[in-house]
Structure formats: C-alpha cells, structure tokens
Design goal:
Elements (H helix, E strand, L loop, with lengths): L6 H14 L6 E5 L11 E7 L17 E7 L2 E7 L10 H4 L1 H8 L4 E10 L9 E9 H4 L26 H13 L5 E7 L8 H9 L4 E3 L3 H9 L3 E11 L10 H25 L1
Parallel strand pairs: 1-4, 1-5, 5-9, 6-7, 7-8
Antiparallel strand pairs: 2-3, 3-4, 5-8, 6-9
Helix pairs in contact: 1-3, 5-8
This protein binds hypoxanthine.
C-alpha cells in the first residue's frame, strides 16, 4: 500500500494555496454531488483546479468538477471544495482526506460537509435533507481509517475522541436556521461506506438494524480527520434516493444528480444562515 501523506507534503499544498489566494479562511465547505453550483456564488473568488496543486488527488466522478474556490460567503472567508475525492476512485484514505489536513494547516476552525445519500429511515424521501447527528464509519471499523499508520503528533492525538463528531453548537444553529426559514430538516445517523456498488437489500436491512438513517460513500473519513485535527464539524445529507431494503428498486447515479436539484435550495438556505450566524 502507498505510504500516508506526510506533514511536509501537506504544507507544500498549503504553501501553493497561499501563493494563489491571500485569505485566511475560518470555514471550510465540502460540496458533494449536485451541489457544485453553490460554489458559483462565492464572492471575490480565486479558483484553483485540483490538478494545479501538488499531491492533490483529482476527482474523476461526473458532477464533481474538482477545484478549490476561495473567497467570501455571507461575510465569512471560506475555503470551498467544489467536488471531493472518494475512496472508490482508487486513492488511499490518506489522499482522500488531504484536503482536510490542508484546511487544518490553513487554520480553519469549522468544516461544513454535504453529501448525497440514500434514505434508509422510513420517512426519508428523495429531495429531503438530513442533519447528520452522528455517523457509522464502516470502512474505518474494519481497518480503512484515514488515521491508520504512524500518528503525526503535530496534527492530533493517537486516539481521537469521536463522541461528539458533529458539533452540538453547530447542530443547534442548523436547527434554528432551518426552523426560522421553514426548511424541513430531518436528523439522523449517516452510514459511510466505501462503494462504489450500491447496497444489497440484505446490507440495507443490516444497516437499518444497527441504527443508520442515511447511507453514502463519502464524509466519514473527512469527518474523522477533521475531528482528529480539532476542526468542528456540521454535516448535511441530501437524500437523493430511497435505499430500499427489499429488492424492488435500482438506484443510479442519475437519480442522485436529479434529486440534488430539490436539495440545493434547502441546503443553501441552511448553510447561508449558519454562516451568517457564525
Ligand atoms: N447508497 C450509497 N450511496 C449513495 C446512495 C445510496 O443509496 N445514494 C447516494 N449516494
């Protein structure tokens, strides 16, 4: 297996970002499938295609255009990842989470992460949005953790706490903003998998049984690294399809992109409101 990304490599990326954009962002945003257009509203933007950065893995998935956008949103200096990298593309967990280390070394305090997910809970439908209150890191539980390998003490502790992976204050703020703006908001546990195949009905019944409300192929490695690095996290799942526990339904990547269109305005309202309040 390829070696983990080193601190020196992380700091080379940080230096390359600083060379292009003269800001010290406080907030990092990761925009998942279908949400890329939100990044278009960043003010005074500096765009850095992922391919321009050293060591940076480049996304290959349709709907993930793959660049950094640095600028302002709702008066906050932000570091936006327009598109993300997934483990199923063939990168290591360490590569997948390099952007979070770069955020950390840039001094980012808060990360807002979004994803497209299948709805496992009975009352979740395509187009709904779920505030992530906790997660199940399935790859991490069986040995594919981004924190596997020698711990870099400068970045965080060997055994990081995950009891409050999603920051209680940010959760409260998201609930308040959603309520004030009349945005319906579910809450629940996100199940993170490696993908790229969708789940079998038996797998989904298992996930439901152990407490998962939504399921997807991203986010949990990023959140694990953010928490290791002391970054506070808020996460939103956009429900792109129902994850059926009976063999009656085939999910496709096109469904994911389609439901994204209903999800975007809801997520945008919540994220903008949270940014304004921070
Ligand atoms: N399963 C896994 N990942 C997903 C799904 C799903 O049903 N929908 C969007 N991403």
């Amino acid at each position: 297996m390829q070696a983990n990304i080193t601190l020196k490599e992380i700091d080379e990326v940080v230096a390359a970002v600083k060379e292009r954009a003269d800001i010290s962002p406080r907030i990092g945003l990761i925009l998942g499938s279908g949400l890329n257009d939100f990044a278009a509203s960043v003010e005074n933007p500096t765009y850095i295609p992922f391919g321009d950065l050293p060591h940076w893995p480049v996304s290959t998935v349709k709907g993930h255009s793959g660049r950094l956008v640095l600028g302002q949103l709702e008066g906050q200096d932000v570091f936006v990842m327009q598109g993300r990298i997934h483990f199923y593309e063939g990168y290591t967990m360490s590569q997948v989470t390099l952007p979070i280390r770069v955020m950390q070394r840039l001094g980012i305090e808060i990360m807002i992460v979004t994803n497209a997910a299948g709805g496992i809970a009975d009352d979740f439908y395509p187009g709904d949005v779920m505030l992530i209150t906790d997660h199940i890191n399935m790859p991490g539980l069986v040995g594919q953790s981004p924190l596997h390998g020698p711990n870099i003490e400068e970045l965080g502790p060997r055994f990081p706490d995950m009891t409050q992976a999603y920051d209680p204050e940010l959760l409260a703020l998201a609930r308040k903003v959603a309520k004030e703006n009349g945005v319906p908001l579910h809450e629940g546990v996100y199940m993170g998998l490696s993908g790229p195949s969708f789940e079998t009905p038996a797998e989904l019944r298992f996930m439901k049984m152990i407490g998962a409300d939504s399921v997807g192929m991203s986010t949990v490695p990023e959140v694990a690294v953010a928490r290791h690095g002391g970054i506070r996290v808020m996460g939103l799942s956009g429900i792109s399809n129902k994850a059926h526990t009976q063999p009656e339904f085939v999910a496709s990547h096109e469904d994911v992109l389609q439901a994204g269109k209903q999800i975007v305005p809801k997520m945008e309202t919540i994220i903008r409101g949270v940014l304004r309040a921070l």
